[in-house]
Each structure stands twice: as structure tokens, then as C-alpha cells.
Amino acid sequence: MAAVGANSQLNPLENAERQFEEAAARLKLEGGVKEMLKRPRRATIQSLPVMMDDGTIKVFTGYRVQHSIARGPAKGGIRFHQDVTLEEVEALASWMTWKCAVADIPFGGGKGGIKVDPRGLSMSELERLTRRYAADLSDLFGPERDVPAPDVNTGEREMAWFVDTYSMHERRTELAVVTGKPIEIGGSQGRREATGRGVMICVEQMCKHLNVPLKGAKVVVQGFGNVGGVAADLLAECGAKIVAASDVSGAIHNPDGLDVKALLEFVKDHKGVLGFPGGKALTTSIIEYDCDILVPAALENQITSENAPNVKAKIVAEGANGPTTPDADKILEAKGIWVIPDILCNSGGVTVSYFEWVQNRMGFYWPETEVNSRLRQYMEKAFLDVLQTGVKEKASLRMAAYMVAIKRVLKVHQLRGMYA
């Protein structure tokens, strides 16, 4: 991700606020109401001293932002990345508020992060850092207050450490404090695939609306990780042809279609797509590759005003958070490209996180078929809500999604009233 300030259109917080402001203007929100909905409830910066394996002490910086708790506990992942900033975390927390509202699940928005390159830490150092973060911020977290989840460079392992640390401080086992856990300690069936499955469902619904076949469609996936890899696999099962894929190792392509199952196995063994024998290395921009459906599933700010004019896809399905800048949005819209916005398209993950939280709290767990069935119900309803609003308001799907979300959060504020 580009450094904040190097280019204003690459500032995720400015982008999130621009998207909100445009939707707020369409809804004719009064100034004070607009500020109340836009600003984060709480932002915390924490110094995290950790004993390293060589006996030295290193201090890391951690963040947690609660954007809104109006509709329920703050909900959002924790990322470990060397480029994490407070502004990025604030933007991601606000997107979580709107995402949970679009999905119509009873959560607010939160996000967390630690400024660290986890590749430079040993397993024990990573565990100590995770536990320090969980312990130092334990007063913020809880099933009724703030429920973290995995994000970039975190997963089931880190969530298990988090549960153990929090439970030790509470003197009782509390599984519902985080989601995205291993199945053995309260994780939900279908959670790992949920975000990618949600992307697939949205693409499927978009194709139905446009009356274009998904079978045979050429798909490009930028970010062949948990989200992109699963989405690619499920889209291929629907008959789509995955013609290019990328991750941190590089990019590959095959105009005749990549063998997704084989590629997933290759990535497990080789930690990247580059070198896969069923594809050739791609030296040009994967964003600009000729395709019908583009799935940006990496980090923010991948489609900008510089490369948006060269996007050839008919549908952009945002598997990542904030992959398209507002300036690029206008260009894509003018080109007639349908963008399924992140707060709708990748909401499958937080929806099944909600299912996991519910299962933890009632101590009763569902089979994967039930999880996937419930996810489809939520995703199809969310897509229809956004599509109908877009048609009614003559707005892009992104603006429609924001309008749906803002109205839902505002309604709760109006019903609860103003505490004085």
C-alpha cells in the first residue's frame, strides 16, 4: 500500500469519508447527524513491548478503532502488517459499520492492527505479540463490546491465542470474544470459505441481473489468498474460466483457463502462484487483463484513476476492502462497468462470523450445509436490497449500498434517542 500522503487518492480514510459524504448528500443528512455517523466512537493507540527471542525488548504499535456500536458490538478484524496506520484502521472500521448494516446483522464496526512485518518474527515472538495486544486491550474486548476476527496476516492460530489470553484474564473460558477460531474451540463450519463464497454469490446474482452467463465467463483474481482462492474455486465450479491470478509472489495467466484445484495445491506447497506449471508469468498489470469479471481480493487502492481507464472487465467484484478509489469509481461507472462494492461483496465473512458468535453464545453448532444455506439467504437479500435501492435512486451499487447502510444505522440512533 502506498504511504499515506504520497497521493491523496491512496489515503483509505479520505476515500472512506468521500464515499460516505456522497451518500450522505444523497440522503440529505443534517450536518450534526452526518458528523455523528461519520466519526469513530473510539480510537486507541497502544505501545506493545515484547521480549524477543534474543532477550532484547522491542516495542510495537497497536491500534483498535471502534467506529460504531449503535447496532451491536463493534466487529472487525486485526491485521498484522508493516504499513498499518491509524488512518487505515479508522477507514476499515467505518467500512465494517456499513458492511454489517448492509448485511443486516446486529454488529457495529471496528478494526484493529499492529504495525509489524510478521515474516520477521519467530513463532514464539508472534505469539507473545498477539497475547500482549489481547491483554493490553482486554478492557475494550468482549462478546457484548467488541469482537475481533482474523484479517491480513492473521488467522485461526492468532484467534486461538486471543481466546486463551482473554479467558485467562476473565478467569473463565469465553469463546465468543473473537470469531474465525479453529473448529475445535468454537469456530464455525464454513467460516474460512465464507468471504469467498459471498463473492461468488454476488457475482452469480450480478450475472443474473444483467442476464449474462457465468458459465464460460473469463475471471481474473488479484490476491489468490483465502478470499480470492476460495472465490476462484467456487466460480470455477460454476463454470467460469479463471484466466489469471496473482499474489505476493507475482502473477500468472492462461487464456485457456487455469486449473484452480491444482493451483490451490501448488500454492499450499510453494507459498505463491508464481512458477505454477499450468500458467505463464504475467508481466503486465493483472488489473488490466482482458476478462469479463475482475475480482480484486488483495489490499486497498488497487484500482486507481491511473489504471481504471484500462480495466476491461464488465463486472468488478470487490473481494478486498477499499480496492477501488473514488476517482477510479467514477471512471468505471462512466465506462459502464458494474462494481459490486466491498461492503456488500465481501460481507460473507462477517455474516458467518455473526453465525459463529451466535453458535458460541447458545452452545449449539450448525453443520456446514446449514451455515452455507443461511449465508446464501443473507447475501441474496443484501444484494437485492442494494440493487433495488440503486434502481430506485438511479445510483451506482456502491452509493446504493452506502444509502442502505446509513439509513439502517441512522434509524437505530433515532429509535434510541440522544443521551444527554
Task: Kindly summarize this structure in a few lines.
This protein has 420 residues and is α/β, with parallel strands linked by helices. It is built from 13 helices and twelve strands. The model is unreliable at 1-6 (pLDDT under 50).
Write the SSE topology:
Blueprint: H1 12-27, H2 31-38, E1 42-51, E2 57-68, E3 74-81, H3 86-103, E4 108-115, H4 123-136, E5 146-150, H5 156-170, H6 191-210, E6 218-222, H7 226-237, E7 241-247, E8 250-253, H8 260-270, E9 280-281, E10 293-296, E11 315-317, H9 326-334, E12 338-340, H10 342-345, H11 348-362, H12 368-393, H13 397-416
Parallel strand pairs: 3-4, 3-5, 6-7, 6-10, 10-11, 11-12
Antiparallel strand pairs: 1-2, 2-4, 7-8, 8-9
Helix pairs in contact: 1-3, 1-13, 3-13, 4-5, 6-7, 6-11, 6-12, 11-12, 12-13
